[in-house]
């Protein structure tokens, strides 16, 4: 139930599920093809054709090292363009387009209009522009207009001085200089105790080793200072239990893939190791992390380790299973000896999923939930708490800048849920010595920010799903000194596109505000009475709603076919609204049931605001944790939810990885969301199913095991229930390629059939892909 890297990923899969009882169609005789085509205006290709007048919502900004100018790339209808902006001179000029680089390099068959903005980048000096096309890189030198072609070496990490490269081979570490021989740095690596990046996941499979891809990417190392020493984590999974996937499409015989995944309540857990190496060679140092289950955070190599400024100390966080206690530690880089600086063990557990720390001259900053919200606090080196630096009824997220004297910091924090959508980032400045903080922006929007190296200016792109982006430059006081780009949505609106409506309603307790978005059919559609589709994700880490302008959001495309599509949060969905909100599953005492009452209340509340919604035709769709929630709703409240699509759902959290399960819900038997019988499961609800339910799962899912959907399917069969099941033979947790489009259309067809009486087509895809 890990949150996927973006909301778009969840929504693309979530829009593959929803159903309710058949009612007379309000859209005349419009068949599946007719209804599906109404969403074309929301397709990525259609939106891109009208994107020239829309500023980027999340630009990848590269400041010059002297902080005098910055660069960013943006998509155009048929190209990608790179711009240079000088805030002092108030100028913005186009540097080059991807089409120019492709033409000069003689590249054929790659339309510039198919490339993302991220394909085009520039070095910090603005001398060379890079265009990445698959595994190839085109480097354009602006001084002489020449282009070179290369394949970037992604298998090695380069030292800060550029003299050493570090890579892995057969699970061990190696290093070399540009003209020197390779030096083997470790010799005890093996399959399930590997330094290879391809094996560095929380629950790795052996497929990378089988296919030779384990060493294709650089090891996940962190350099210590500007020298040659680095740290790296390794998981010892040799005694951890196995899971398996069967690749039925492998030739000539199906192939079994082995995976290591600790499950909730098990005792044979991975051992998390922390090592220090020198790229020059010599003996390695193993940091004495003790027998703590988690070092850094739940995911090895994903943060929670911080080298000191002088390179002599390695600070790190370590956590017990379930995060019942956390310690901030300092390791001697030379010896690996560890001392504890700070320990937190609150009675209701520690809720900070990603620890954060900043070293100061006379103390340090540490993010903690001691106040009920996640705030940065100032501590002295004895571990004594001095004061909160980021106070208020909001949670802080990241430190963007610390002044050289350590007296002031700029940071991001979530908005105040009492007044506005809390998922939005706002930018704040705080005085560390006094704990006084104030926002630097005023706009009711989400802010994407990139600071200049000198901290005097920053780029701010602010937007909402219903507010097209504006890109500005602000000074350190938050004053806008230049507007780089603004947006004009008139062309989008003329095409029939429609922005979602902002939603604020109340939870089942009739007191807690819930925030979300409602998509309705486009401006060129005849709405009539609309069935409602709830696109859900229960959290608890994130509620997965959109936060920035996203004109090709898949929910808009689904709504255009004749639905009201609601995405809204619920108590227990996220940490950003405070510990009590996050721990609502503890109050309910169930990992399964906690989001349903709030979702029902939200749907009723929204229907009262939008009379076009038919409250008797309610459906629910979701992916991953949303798949769990969708299936739960169909069985827990069968009189309310009539159609459901549940993809890749963790229907039985006993069959999901221990780290996330116990962090979010505690021990299955003794934790606050457990019971003497363990976590509540969806298969226990199978006899209650009444409506139409479609279950979808990838056969090779290496996040939520296929067994989750198989266990629910078995229970439904034993209960004699009529349900639908789709297994995708080649797919993992995130659906890709033709399967993703197939699932989108399958979901739409399922919803149209059972909510509006539209007969599903014989051929879901317009044309069968060649060779498929």
From TrEMBL:
Keywords: Signal. Residues 252-468 form the Dipeptidylpeptidase IV N-terminal domain. It comes from Tsuneonella suprasediminis. GO terms for molecular function: dipeptidyl-peptidase activity; serine-type peptidase activity. SUPFAM superfamilies: alpha/beta-Hydrolases, DPP6 N-terminal domain-like. This is S9 family peptidase. One of its GO terms (biological process) is proteolysis. Residues 558-756 form the Peptidase S9 prolyl oligopeptidase catalytic domain. Residues 1-24 form the signal peptide. InterPro entries: AB_hydrolase_fold (IPR029058), Peptidase_S9_cat (IPR001375), Peptidase_S9B_N (IPR002469), Serine_Prot_S9B/DPPIV (IPR050278). The keyword DNA-binding does not apply.
